[in-house]
Amino acid sequence: DSGVTQTPKHLITATGQRVTLRCSPRSGDLSVYWYQQSLDQGLQFLIQYYNGEERAKGNILERFSAQQFPDLHSELNLSSLELGDSALYFCASSELLEGEQYFGPGTRLTVT
Amino acid sequence: AQSVAQPEDQVNVAEGNPLTVKCTYSVSGNPYLFWYVQYPNRGLQFLLKYITGDNLVKGSYGFEAEFNKSQTSFHLKKPSALVSDSALYFCAVRVPSTTGTYKYFFGTGTRLKVLA
């Protein structure tokens, strides 16, 4: 158990809908990362927040957005969902800006 | 374009033999380099990272990686493979972006199979 929690574990929704994935980092970790893992595109880094501020950006679509709240939990919002957004979404946290990352168990999103 | 390459989709090695999982990168500047492992039905775990200093980096579970600047490589190694090392391994790099933040790039992953 890494200490990083993600909810929900599974999510099934229809195309065009909007969902929110939640991540609680390990106690004391200031940095949160979001990743997408799909069969056709592999593992992709989406975005990183550090103490509430965006610090790194990857291949995150404009339909996706994220934020980190004052209590350091983070949410990833996915809107206008498409079939291709079906994937496993991981959150990770680290104590420092570039520290060792601890991953959560992931949220499996299925778009039908 | 900046990228990370893991040229082997799968690597098979006999238990007890040394293993190498290859990673090369093409980025500007001085990158930070990482290896992660994904065991079956589990999330990713951090193995090791290189930022600066000694080219040989030691990480978790007996793994190490060698940074080679001239060959732009960061190969993952272990002297003696265990069956329990069978997993999916990802190489990643972090580079500064033009906006003052950073970007991470991941390789496509290499599946390591250790045979008893």
SS class of chain A:
mainly beta
Average pLDDT, all residues of chain B: 91
Mean pLDDT of chain A: 93
Helix content range of chain B: under 10%
Number of beta strands of chain B: 12
Largest sheet of chain A: 7 strands, mixed
Stretches with pLDDT under 50, minimum 5 residues of chain A: none
Q: Please give the oligomerization state of what you see.
A: heterodimer
Q: How much strand of chain A?
A: over 45%
Tally of strands of chain A: 11
Please estimate the helix content of chain A: under 10%
| H/I helix tally of chain B | 0
Structural class of chain B: mainly beta
Main sheet of chain B, how many strands, which sense, barrel?
Answer: 6 strands, mixed
Order of helix and strand elements from N to C terminus of chain B: EEEEEEEEEEEE
Unreliable spans of chain B are none
Rg of chain B, rounded, reads 14 Å
C-alpha termini separation of chain A: 31 Å
> Tell me, what's the shape of chain B?
globular
Strand content of chain B: over 45%
